[in-house]
Design a protein that fits this description.
Chain B: This is DUF5357 domain-containing protein. Chain B: Keywords: Membrane, Transmembrane, Transmembrane helix. Chain B: It holds the Pfam family DUF5357. Chain B: InterPro entries: Uncharacterised_alr2393 (IPR020360). Chain A: InterPro entries: FraC. The complex is a heterodimer of chains A (198) and B (346). Chain A is mostly helical and 198 residues long. Chain A has eight helices and one strand, in the order E-H-H-H-H-H-H-H-H. In chain A, helix 2 packs across helix 4 and helix 4 packs antiparallel against helix 8. Chain B has 346 residues and is an alpha+beta fold. Chain B has a domain of 131 residues. In chain B, 56% of the residues lie in helices and 14% in strands. Chain B contains twelve helices and ten strands. In chain B, strands 6, 7, 8, 9 and 10 form a five-stranded antiparallel β-sheet that branches. A two-stranded antiparallel sheet of chain B has the order 1-2. In chain B, helix 6 runs antiparallel to helix 7. At the A-B interface, strand 1, helix 1, helix 2, helix 3 and helix 8 of A face strand 4, helix 7 and strand 5 of B. Strand 1 of chain A pairs antiparallel with strand 5 of chain B.
């Protein structure tokens, strides 16, 4: 069977939005994280961090979507028929009823905070993963208690110093996320206008 | 005349046959001896040898056992052959390891052919980028000699990005198959226009353009003709007054009728739940002794038209004398005639 519907537009749109979000967030990360006297990232690193964060939140978003669809298949069809029709109307025909629109707005609101949490966790995770003291698992090394201690402390040493808020980058990710969501919403608005008026 | 045609001609004419065979054998032997024992060519040879054994074997389990070796050697050889090679996407400047993708594809085909883990080609295609990520990533952990170690900070960052990008590509594949699954459940969706969609594009092939547009109304028309046939069947053997009372009561029979039609047309396919059949009976305006039967098939699912889609068929039920009355009593009764017009879109 040769498929006749291809998700090329979804792929292009996602590539565009991801590129935009990465570009914006890397600038925010670079500026915010280098405010203190002690710069935390290089420009190259800021792009890599932003790319990792955004890719991770996108992949997790897709997985959530797939599990929701799987859940829908499990539930009795009578319950989900309305939701399914609304979803297919949106995906296939870009038709959004008022109810769907309000649902989408709520969903975007939730997504914003969920992606903020994911990105913040991703940033901490990355900083832990990329620290230079990370244990090198080369077997010929003799056991080194100091190295093990550093590895075990890992991310926790960032949390031990709540006063050193610059190391936590809480505000940074929030601001970066807000900026990229603003840009993405703007692009989506322009797209939907263009489709409605053409 | 070039060398290839010369050789072909020699073979055809059986000229110097012995000489040619000897030459070939010598050259093949030279090539064989040039293969190092510990190289990807050796692995390829082992794989080919395993395939040869596979062809000779009869038992299905023995075949499968040998094919595992054949595939493993093929995977090792392909991975080895492409080790460290990188290709660049023109214009964009992205680098990727084509070897990882090729090896992952071989692995997917191998798993698929053995029905191990991957049983459907859709799952195999979705798993392909993830296997490719694994094949691209693992050389980073190798150290000279038979040791392994974590890559440095820059290498780890690259690995994170590599794995995430491959996961994203796998998600796109999965999304494609999700849409295809929905279309298989609800084939009627294909009769809509996808111009406005932000996510999917329609690529029409010549073969389905011919089938194209009319399928929509044909589907609904099948529903209507089935409904008509069902009603006809229910009415057989009834005289006019019986038919009249049955038709007047059709509203209460509607759920039953709906179910019968959907079972006949769709069987257990989920699309049947998204059609609604309604039958309305009214007095005909022109002749008071006739009834109007209006059958409507309404699509309840997603559609590119805001007002949805519905097809209507008008039928006229009129009183007639019975065609061949058996008895005097039957001559007193009247039969009926059901005539239907072609369905119209509303």
């Amino acid at each position: 069977m040769v498929a006749n519907l291809w998700p090329f537009r979804a792929i292009m749109l996602q590539a565009l939005l991801l590129t935009m979000a990465i570009a914006i967030e890397s600038i925010v990360l670079l500026r915010q994280m280098n405010r203190s006297n002690r710069p935390q990232v290089t420009p190259r690193q800021s792009i890599q961090y932003a790319a990792s964060m955004n890719l991770l939140s996108t992949v997790l978003g897709w997985l959530t979507l797939f599990s929701l669809f799987d859940l829908e298949d499990l539930l009795p069809p009578d319950w989900t028929r309305g939701a399914q029709t609304a979803v297919l109307n949106f995906i296939l025909f870009n038709r959004v009823s008022d109810e769907t629109l309000s649902f989408l707005i709520v969903l975007a609101f939730i997504t914003f905070f969920a992606s903020f949490a994911v990105k913040q966790a991703a940033l901490w995770g990355l900083r832990w993963l990329l620290q230079s003291e990370f244990p090198q698992s080369v077997p010929d090394l003799s056991p080194d208690p100091e190295r093990d201690r550093l590895a075990a402390v890992g991310i926790r040493d960032l949390r031990k110093n709540p006063r050193d808020s610059s190391a936590l980058n809480l505000g940074t990710v929030l601001i970066a996320n807000a900026w990229s969501y603003a840009a993405v919403s703007a692009v989506l608005l322009i797209l939907s206008w263009q489709f409605n008026f053409s | 005349m070039n060398r290839l045609t010369q050789i072909l001609l020699d073979i055809v004419l059986l000229k110097n046959a012995g000489q040619i065979v000897r030459n070939r054998a010598q050259r093949t032997q030279a090539w064989f001896t040039s293969i190092k024992p510990f190289s990807w060519e050796a692995m390829l040879m082992l794989s080919l040898f395993s395939w040869f054994v596979y062809l000779l074997l009869q038992g299905i389990y023995a075949k499968q056992f040998v094919s595992i070796f054949a595939w493993s050697f093929l995977i090792i050889s392909s991975d080895w052959a492409f080790l460290g090679q990188q290709a660049q996407v023109p214009l964009l400047g992205f680098k990727f390891q084509q070897g990882a993708w090729i090896t992952a594809a071989i692995l997917c085909v191998a798993l698929l052919s053995n029905d191990f883990i991957l049983t459907q080609w859709q799952t195999a295609l979705t798993a392909w980028p993830i296997f490719a990520a694994l094949f691209a990533a693992y050389p980073q952990f190798l150290r000279p000699g038979l040791r392994w170690g974590l890559p440095g900070a820059a290498g780890r960052q690259d690995l994170v990005l590599l794995v995430l990008v491959h996961c994203l590509i796998a998600c796109w594949f999965q999304f494609h198959f999700l849409i295809q699954g929905r279309l298989a459940d609800y084939p009627y969706l294909l009769n809509n226009s996808f111009e406005d969609s932000l996510f999917v594009t329609r690529i029409r092939l010549n073969s389905d353009r011919a089938v194209g547009e009319n399928t929509a109304s044909r589907q609904a028309a099948t529903l209507l003709t089935t409904a008509e046939a069902t009603i006809r069947q229910a009415l057989t053997g009834k005289n006019w007054s019986e038919a009249y009372s049955w038709l007047s009561d059709i509203k209460s029979l509607q759920p039953d009728l709906n179910q019968q039609v959907m079972k006949a047309v769709y069987d257990e396919q989920p699309e049947g739940h998204l059609w609604q059949m309604t039958a309305d009976v009214g007095r005909n305006a022109i002749s008071s002794s006739s009834l109007d039967l209006i059958l409507t098939a309404r699509w309840l699912g997603a559609s590119s038209r805001p007002e949805g889609y519905a097809l209507r068929q008008r039928c006229l039920v009129s009183e007639t004398s019975l065609p061949n009355p058996d008895s005097f009593a039957q001559m007193q009764q009247t039969g009926f005639q059901l005539t239907c017009q072609a369905p119209v879109e509303v």
